[in-house]
Structure formats: C-alpha cells, structure tokens
Amino acid sequence: MKAFIALFQALDATTSTNAKVAALVEYFQQAPSGDAAWATFFLTGERMKRFISSRDLQLWAIEHIAMPEWLFMDSYHTVGDTAETVALLVGQPHSRLVDRPLQTWLEEDILPLASLPKPEQGAQVKRWWQLLNIAECFVLNKIMTGAFRVGVSKTLVLRALAEVAGLEPAIVAHRFIGAWRPSAAFFEQALSAGGSLSDAPQPYPFYLAYPLEQTQEQSIDGLGNCDDWLAEWKWDGIRGQIMHQGGQVLIWSRGEELVTEQFPELAALALRLPEGTVLDGEILAWRDAAPLDFAALQKRLGRKKPAGAILQESPVIFMAYDLLQWQSEDWRSRALVERKRKLGEIVQSVAQPQLQLSPEIAFTSWQELTELRLQSRTRSVEGVMLKRRGSSYLVGRKKGDWWKWKIEPYTIDAVLLYAQPGSGRRANLYTDYTFALWQGEELVPVAKAYSGLTDSEINRVDNWVRRNTLERFGPVRSVKPELVFELAFENIALSKRHKSGVAVRFPRIKRWREDKPFREADTLETLKSLIDPSPACETTP
Amino acid sequence: MAQLIEVTPQGLFCPQGNFYVDPWGKVATAVITHAHSDHARTGSQTYICSDNCVPMLRQRLPDAPVVQGLPFHEVIHLGNTQVSLHPAGHIRGSAQVRIEADGEVWVITGDYKRCADPSVEPFEVVPCDVLITEATFGAPVYQWQPGEETAQEIYQWWQQNRSQGLTSLLFCYALGKAQRILAELTKFTSDAVYVHGAVQPLTDIYRAQGVVMLPTIPTADVPHGHSYAGELVIAPPSAHRSVWMKRFKNVSTGFASGWMRVRGHRRRRGYQRGFVLSDHADWPGLLRTVKECGARKIYVTHGYKDLLARYLRHEGLDAQSLDTLFANDDGEDSKAESSLPVEAGQ
Questions:
Q1: What is chain B's alpha carbon radius of gyration, rounded to the nearest angstrom?
Q2: Which of B141, B252, B335 sits opposite A78 (nearest CB)?
C-alpha cells in the first residue's frame, strides 16, 4: 500500500499529464494484480459502499485530539474537505506504517471495519491514525468515506493500463465500464490479450458531442456542405443505453450507472428488442407528443422502485438516436446513416409507444437550420445536434463529427448578496455566490451560482467580499449590495419551494457587469416575464 | 488606563510616544518591523528599523527621507516611552517592537516564526503585559515540518528534474524565502542557482550580512540562448507565466509557501509542485509564543485572527482580534509580494 500511496502523491503533486501517465504506468508494471485491481477501482472513480461518514471521522478526530468542535469546523472551512482536515490534524510527522499489499490492507483491515459497531470502528481508526503520516491518513480517510478521487481522469488511467497491457485503449475502456468488483482474476482478464468487446453485457463508452461555440455561430458554414450533416433536436433528458443481451435487459445512464429498476416501462420495452441489440438515446419524461419538464424526470430518478402513481404522473419514453450493436455485432464503425436506417427499422418493428425514433430535422441550407433552431424553446428542447452522416460512433468527447448547438441561454443582471467559500480547489476562496433581483426596494435571492468567473476575477471578488462583509452566518457572509453579474440559465419555472417564487435551471455567471450600478440590476418581474406560458414547463409543487 | 497602542486610520499608533508601527498611511515617525511591502509602506518621514533591516528598507523604499537603524535590544526614548527591537525570525532584520511606559510593556510581534532558519536572527521571547501577535496561519491545520526537510524535498525535485533535462523553476517571495532556501540548500549541494532580477539585490544584502548561501547568478547577466537544462532558478510569484519565463524551454514549476500545506491551495495555484515552507509561526508556534511571553492581554491581527483569539479565550486568556489593513488580512499573504516589478523580458 505504500506504493499506492506514493502513486497517489505523485499524481497529486503534478499537473503534467505525461508525468501522471508515467507514474501510473510505473505503478501498474510492478503492482501485483490484486493490488492493481483495487488501485484501478479507486483511480477510475469507483467507490466502495460508504460505511463511515464524514461526520464519524470528524467526531473521532475531535475526540482523538481533544479539540472543541467549533475549532474543527473553522479548520474545515479553511481546508474545504473533511478527510483532509482530519489528516492534517491527526497525521504523524513521520510514518510508522508497516507495509502490506494494498489488497490485503483493504480486504482484511478496511472492509471488515464495516461490520463492527461504531465505537469499535472509532477505536480502530484512531489506532491507525497514530501510525500514519498526513498523506497516508488522507488516503485512508478518503477510502473509508468512499469519496476517493485522485487528480487523474478515468481516460488517463485507462490509457496507462492499455499501455501496460499492450492493448487498444478502447478495448480496455470497454472492459472497465459499468460495475465491477476488484479482484486479481478480474484485472488479469481485463488486461488479457484477445477477447471480443461484447463478451459481457456492459454499455459502450458514450460518444459525446462537442459544443459549437457561440462565436462560431456565423461560421456554422465552416462545417462545410450541409448535405453532409444530419440534424436532430437536442433532447433534454437523461442520456442512456438500452440493451437486450445475454438474456438480460439493462438500462445504463451516461454516468455508467444501471437505472433499469427506475424505469420499468423501458425495461419491458427492452425485452421486445431482438437479443443482442444496444441502442443509444435519451430517456425523456413525455406526454401527448411532447417532453415534460426535466423536474418530472428527476422525480423518476429519485425512486428506486417507482409505484403506480408516479408512473402515471411522469411517464417516460426512450428517444432512440443511434444503434451501437445489432445481432450481437458491434456497429459503431459503420456510417451513421447506415446505423440510422437500421435503427428506423427496429423502432418500426418493435412498434411500442415507449420507443421513438429521434426525428431528423429536414433542412436544405445552414440558414434554414439556423432559423429552425429558434423553435427549440417552444419545442422544449435544448437546441440542435449536428452529426456528420458518414461518422462512426467514437469514444468520449471528440471534436469534428458531432456537435451540439445549444440555444442561447436566458440572461439576467443580478446583485451579489451572499458569498461562501468553495471546497476542494476553491477552499478558502469565496466562490459560491447567491444572487438577488429587485422587488420594489427589496433584493430577493433568486439563484446560486458557482462557476463562470476566471481565476483572477475569483480572486478579486474574494478580496472584495472580505472587505465588504456585513454579517457572518457560519461560513456564509452577507455582503454590501454592490457587485452586479450577468447570469445565464437554461430554464425557469414557477416554484413554491423558493422564496422568490421561481426556480432557474443551471444558473452560472456569464460575466461580471462592472459597468452596471447595482440599482440598475434586473427586477424579479423581468425574470418572471421570461417564464414560458406552456404548461409543459411548469414545475408541480 | 490609556492604551499604549491604538488602532487609527493610519495604523497602529502609540500616543505616548507619538509614533506608528508599520503604518499603512503616511506619518511622521514609523517604526518598521520588517521590509515586506505590506509592513514597510512609502510616504512617511522618518523610518526606524533594525540595523539589519536598513539596507532592505532602503532598497524597497529608495525615496524614504530618513531611515534610522537600531541595534537589537538597544532602547531609544520616543516621547514618554522606551522602545526597543527584538529579533522576530521572520526574515533577516525582522523585529518585534517592545514599548514600555509607566512600567507597562507592550510587544508588537510583526510577522514572526519559531522554527529554525539559518538566514535570520532567531526569534526571542520578550516578556510583556500586552501582546499584539500576528495570526497569518492561526489555524490548527497549519503545522510546519523543519525547513531542512522541505529544503531536502526541493533538492530532490531539482535533481529529479535535472535527470530529465528539465529546468526547475521555483517561485517564492523574493525577500526572505528565496534567501532562506539558498541558505538551507547549502546542506545538500554547492551548485550555483540562477535568480530572477528581483531576488539578486536582496540576496546580496543577506550575503553582506554574513549569511552563507549557494552562489547565485542573475538571469539578467546570462547571455541570450543559454541552456538552463538541469538548473534551479528562483523567482518571485509575479514572474510566473510572465514574458521572463519564456527563456526557459522545458520546465518544472514549484512554489514554496505555507499555503502549500493545503491541497486545495496547491491545486489552484497552477504550479506543478508545492513545497510547504513558511516564514510565519505555525499554530503550535503561535500558542507557544502567547504562553511564553506571559501577556495578560492578547490582541490578534492578520490572517485567522478571529479563530486564534477565540481559541485563546477558550483557553482562559483575555484575547481579542484587531482589525488592521495588512495585506494578509483574512489568511492570504500572497498579495504582499505580487506588486514586485518583473524583470524586463528579452
């Protein structure tokens, strides 16, 4: 496990991609398969079921070093991460850890902790802390709380594994997709030569479209002859793959989570697909030939086993737009038009209302498509997708063949009212803001936003917040109303849960309006006037 | 009883002695703890500082009308008060200010540290009735390893980069931290180190005061087209991503600061490596100082002042935080050096 901790430190200590891959390759070349399996598990963002909460860690640390709780909390706010705060407080200057294989450590020490009563867990963890240095404490704390993420992307880890195994990265990627249990046997299998891609019912890695930037809007002609392109609406649901394979029916979300149980009507539908079929598409809450608000879909996601009422209230469909596998054969390298043609036949022969074919938008010029795109909002879609007719189905987010051309977001000028420190990379910096709009002489909070400013702007706002604080509520500061920001958001709906009476979707900061006096920020009335009158957009309270 | 020190719009003021300590406004008499720009500001008439601080203050404030040096421990009479300076261990020439009047003693620590540093005059405990202490790192998560251990990490990083043909670009404050590293590194090597134009004159001052450091070569003296492969270069943070940096081909960047103790800080600064090295007292150092000086009243300024003051009260001491305008108010000290002039690019 010292090797794994050293790997973590090497990955954490550098921002260079090459250095990270080199460290990964070096680790995987020497690690026994059982250790390597666990390392891959954590590095690719898989989590153990959490059996120790951050709150447990915090309480044990407070007991361990006899510190008042407020002091721990203040320390936490300077660090922004419980596992790290605890490590900094309890870690030893020098490690007294006796090295053991990572696999043994996890399977014989850490996992059995789950079955112990709380006080015994605490006593054991405290004993470990007395042996470990800060980096080791940090890794242990992160593993126990099930939130172990390292500064590498999954792609980078898979690239290193592919290099070690001498395999194509796509093959390795496919073998590590979905849920898997770390073991020496699994790891050796995953890195073994040969084997086909579809040897287990795993989803294919999703091909993601690249955003067509606003600045390129005039240059949509830059995509070349519009006859080479196929356009579809950009649906606002949950990207998913639906598969009938090996006698199983599975629905995978883009986060590679199995959501089969949440959507029984789609599972029933998948059974009607011929064996060996994998479709890519969008799960949408749908009624009367139109999408329902995204909130309806969110409700469905929250229910593990949805009952009758909610199935009635928020029915879903699968809007299919691609065919990845047909009769157990990988179709991804075939041309899009060919895949689409076959997909059309499948949808037609299945003939179920829950399976629809994402229609092509007919257009004969970029000009015409630009105009059609303006219908997006009334159609309750996010914009337009452009796919090259001859394109294969690639892995990950790639520029070139697939573009998402989203509609302009709504914007509004709002006043900064509260600020609080971010976490992780932004710990100790005031980066999380609450914004307000005018209602008469009062400023009413309408949205929280975390992203959109540059690092130097964040530093300036942070500095300003510290000097213009009116009141403190724990980590939150209320500030003098003065700074105005233009906020962009995707949608707006009436809401009874919000003080302002409206909820905005995916708000983010578009720019800092340093030119605008706060008195001239927008009013709540203006925001409400943006609400789409069509009932499909209304959030049920 | 009248307070020996008051907070005024111009800064910490001693009415009985009619002088200010590290004023942020323009005043007649300024007692200066050390030459960092948030403590030694321009515009005052007479500056009083430690003898060893004089050349740095002159370098930083070339237009200062009068700079009066004072040997450590020597008492001068200002108005009704007796004032003396005592080593603070923060950077070379840094001082705590001891003020005595009518049998009462106040000490203003300025910035200080308790751990070993071969480039400075070591901190001395000054017994007092009232202590005004800094708290830049006044949170329990800030605890320092010995500077020598950090220097060893820096040396290993340099050697590893050297083996890959990379230039090691280490960023840190030009005054104090750079010289401390140059002094600590003599334990591991005698190789010369390249320095940015902002670092060299201050290093010369340290050297003139007898501090043993690695030989330094100003990058300004290096001919165009010179290869820096395998070399260590020390520069202020303001030079990071500047035109000056373009002369180096394949680099690995590092940053030395107490803030590097926290992962979030390391990640957002945009340097490849973070080395934990601070010239401020860490949490145990602050608590130890408060205890050892025996003050009955403690004022806390800079940084995590509310947190430290609250903890001292929790420990049964009479402590409160003091609002000041030092740059590192609220836990950020990086801005203090960010206004340094960047050496002209090529």
A1: 20
A2: B141
Pairing verdict, β B19-21 and B29-31: parallel
What letter does residue A88 receive in the DSSP assignment?
A: H
DSSP annotation of A258 reads B
Residues lower than pLDDT 70 in chain B: 1-2, 324-346
Residue B323 corresponds to which amino acid? D
3-class DSSP assignment, residue A11: helix
Of A14, A88, A428, the CB nearest to B272: A14
CA B69 centroid distance within chain: 19
The residue behind tokens 């500030």 is A479
What is the predicted pLDDT for the residue at A428?
Answer: 76
Q: What does the DSSP assignment read for B15-63?
A: TTTTEEES-SS--SEEE-S--STTTS-S--SEEEEEGGGHHHHHHH-TT
Q: Are B151 and B184 in contact (CB under 8 A)?
A: yes
Q: Over the stretch A362-406, which tens digit does the pLDDT of each residue have?
A: 999 988 998 899 888 888 888 999 999 999 998 888 788 999 988
Chain A residues touching residue B268 (CB < 8 angstroms) = 425-426, 429, 455
Neighbours of A167 (CB within 10 A): 20
Give CA–CA dist B92/B213, Å, rounded.
Answer: 13
Residue of B268, B307, B338 for testing the chain A interface, max A β-carbons within 10 Å: B268
State how far residue A72 is from chain B, nearest Cα, in angstroms.
Answer: 8
What pTM was computed for the model? 0.70
pLDDT band at A532 (very low <50, low <70, confident <90, very high): low
Mean pLDDT of A199-213: 80
Q: Look at residue B264 in the predicted model and tell me its pLDDT.
A: 83
Average pLDDT, chain A: 87
Q: Which of residues B346 and A48 earns the better pLDDT score?
A: A48
Strands lying side by side in the sheet with A402-406: A210-211, A402-406, A383-388, A229-233
Q: Could you report the per-residue pLDDT of A60-76, keeping only the tens digit for each?
A: 999 999 999 999 999 99
Question: A455-508 pLDDT, tens per residue?
Answer: 888 989 998 998 888 888 778 899 999 999 999 987 787 887 788 888 888 899
Task: Judge contact between B175 and B53, C-beta under 8 A.
Answer: no
Smallest CA-to-CA distance from A233 within A298, A279, A291, A294 is with A291
Strands (E), A389-521: 396-397, 402-406, 410-421, 430-439, 442-449, 469-473, 476-479, 484-489, 491-494, 502-505, 508-512
Give A41-64 as a 3 state SS string. Answer: HHHCCCCCCCCCCHHHHHHHHHHH
- Contact between B93 and B47 under an 8 Å Cβ cutoff? The reply is no
pLDDT tens-digit readout, A221-280: 788 898 999 999 999 889 999 999 877 888 988 877 778 888 989 999 999 999 999 999
| pLDDT tops 60 at residue A195 | no
Q: What pLDDT is recorded for position B265?
A: 84
Question: What's the token pair of residue B54?
Answer: 């004089």
Judge whether B258 and B276 are in contact, CB under 8 Å: yes
- Chain A residues in contact with B139 by the CB 8 A cut-off are 74-75, 78
**Cβ atoms A35, A103 nearer than 8 A:** yes
Tokens representing B334? 């990086």
Is residue A331 pLDDT above 60, yes or no? Answer: yes
CA angle A100, A102, A108 (to 5 degrees): 80
- Indicate the Cα dihedral angle A160, A166, A170, A173, nearest 10°: -50
Cβ pair A427:B310 closer than 8 A = no
By C-alpha distance, the chain B residue nearest A79 is B262
Distance CA B66, CA A255 (A): 68
Q: Which residues on chain A are in Cβ contact (under 8 Å) with B143?
A: 88
Rounded CA gap, A415 and A477, in Å?
Answer: 14
